[in-house]
What we know:
Elements: H1 13-17, H2 32-43, E1 54-60, H3 64-71, H4 77-80, E2 86-93, H5 104-121, E3 125-129, H6 134-140, E4 147-156, H7 166-173
Antiparallel strand pairs: 1-2, 2-4, 3-4
Amino acid sequence: MSRAAKTSTPILSVLAQRWSPRSFDPTKSLTLADLTPSFEAARWAPSANNAQEWRFLVGFRGDATFEAMTEHLSGWNASWAPNAGAIVVGMFEDDPENKARDYAPYDLGQAVAHFSVQAHADGLFVHQAAGFERDAMAAAFSVPESWKPFVVAVVGHLGAPELLNETLLARETAPRVRRPLDETVFTEPFPSV
């Protein structure tokens, strides 16, 4: 099943091919060695004042960390994410006394984007999700109060779409769409919406 983006202009293949499936192969495992290149890519993401105010907690299917993470997923995520090989919780440091930290969520986003592109280049798939209980996740892993779990990246090998329930199967196989560039990029004052 090709899910390549139909771009309006050529872009890097790894970016055009990257997508966020919900169906992961429950028979394939991952190790920290499998994800090390992705974490290295995240480590080299840019950040305001080079603060690098992101951290990651990772669990691998079958270990206690992964099992605890799945307990704090919410909504649809709780139904499909447990088939993945790993779950990564991305967090940023929230320090109201340090104005540079205002950019921490943005910088975490860049780190996760770098992680995702490298993972895809390595033959893995990543689905970023916000559907999880942030406070419960923080408490379960004794995350210091200044650190905020913000995103979950579900990582693994692509599974058959038929593994999903009917609703998610429809989403998984629906055409990929994006707003056109001329409705996204402006060279004049922002248009009225």
